[in-house]
Amino acid sequence: MSNAASATKRSLQSQILKILSGPLLCLLILILPQPEGLPDTGMRAIAGTAWIVAWWMLDIFSLAGTGLLSIAIYTVLGVAAPLALFKNFGGSMIMIILGSTLLIGAWTESGFIQRYAYWCMSRPIVGNNPARFLIIFGLSCGLLSVVVPNIPLAVLFTAIAVATADGLDIRPGQSNLIRVMCMVAGMASCYGGIGSPLGGAPNLITIGYVDKFAHYQIEFWQWTLIGLPAAVLCLFALFFIARLLFPATDREKDSLPVPRAYLTRKLEELGPVSSYEHIAVVVMLAALFFWIAGPTIADASGIPALKGALSVPGVAFLAGVALFVIPRGIDRESGRLVFAMNWAQAQKNIGWSIMCMLLGGLVIGDALQTGGVDKWLSDILKDLLGNVSGTLVWFVIVLISALLSQLVNNLAVMAVFTPIVINLGCAFGFNPVAAALSIGMVSNIGVMFPFSSTPIAVSISGAMGHASMQDYAKLGLFICIAGAIIVFGCCWLLGPIAFPDVPSLSTR
Hints:
Layout: H1 3-31, H2 40-58, H3 63-76, H4 82-86, H5 92-110, H6 112-121, H7 130-144, H8 150-167, H9 176-191, H10 201-214, H11 220-245, H12 260-270, H13 275-301, H14 304-309, H15 312-322, E1 327-330, E2 337-339, H16 343-349, H17 352-370, H18 373-384, H19 390-404, H20 410-428, H21 432-442, H22 454-462, H23 469-498
Antiparallel strand pairs: 1-2
């Protein structure tokens, strides 16, 4: 047998073993003695969750595909009926994803994202200072990821770092600035994502969980009030820790190796700002305005229909589909109007995978709640931590969630810990909505390994040897702990301001 055939056979065997790992783990849990106080349905829900998480971690199928399969798995195990689980695909979260990904698609299609990145780094404030350049580089990536998907940003900014090294004939290992730029490209795109509900799928799933388990609808401004300060503080912590762990080399201490001409040339290649870019930015700004001020305008108007239209899902959907009817020019050949978004572009940019991943996360949470697993775990933790301060309990759960998000898919971390922290918030007297928010935020910060998050995977693969996997793990561990502390602090301090009217969950 040739080496190629032997390798193919081993690959097939490995894939088959990975596929079998999920159902085997599920079966193992089902034959274990049932813990006291856990209902039979709960035992089956835990077994099904282990099956799904195993497939997520081993990357057998796509995350979205496994999300869809979760309905079949829980149905086969008798946890819930398929229609009861599939109803999670409807509702406000799907509207938000549909509309927001259309808006972001217009930014991508128009080329505005690339223009923004090069413009920020060519500002006079950067001068020839490496530290200021790194801060502007990271902030331009991190702040853009507040409203733009983090995967394309990680790709773009890692490519900028590598292209800069190539243009200056810097080989891997010669420049700590290039090394840090590659790592910051992936990590800043993750940390910036906690700034608003648009920053990533975990944010939308968190909002869905809070609505489902706490019966509280988080508004756009409430998340951003806490998330944006947390994101900015995390980004500056990232810069500080990165420079501390990977100090500048002698040639980089006082002089910037990136010539301004390189950035200027990149901007010139993009040409003048197009009408398409203007439309994309104006529509997004209009959506942001109504996300923040919409509920107040609706209440002041006294028109019942406006409450739905100016809600977060309503604004996202209306702003997204508005792109289909806003003209951006006339086609010279046909003489027909060209609109800001057509269906081919929409199909490419709508977050279908995010929707299916969202479905999987909600289905897990639904199954665990149906089986009473969240209350069972909460009771155990309450017994173990009965004499511990509620604030300390909250912080420990946030830290555990942050560390687990480095090793386990963030959807699984959120599905398990969000319902638990909501229950514990009621039992220990801390704000359950702010606590749930903190779990969603730290689930965004899987930055240590390529399997921790997709932005890190694309950043590592795109770094072309300028930053190693060990570099990411080293920096990622420290920034993960720092990020957990910052997120907890912001949620603890600003939670009472953002959520002063949190309802009692004792009647759940």
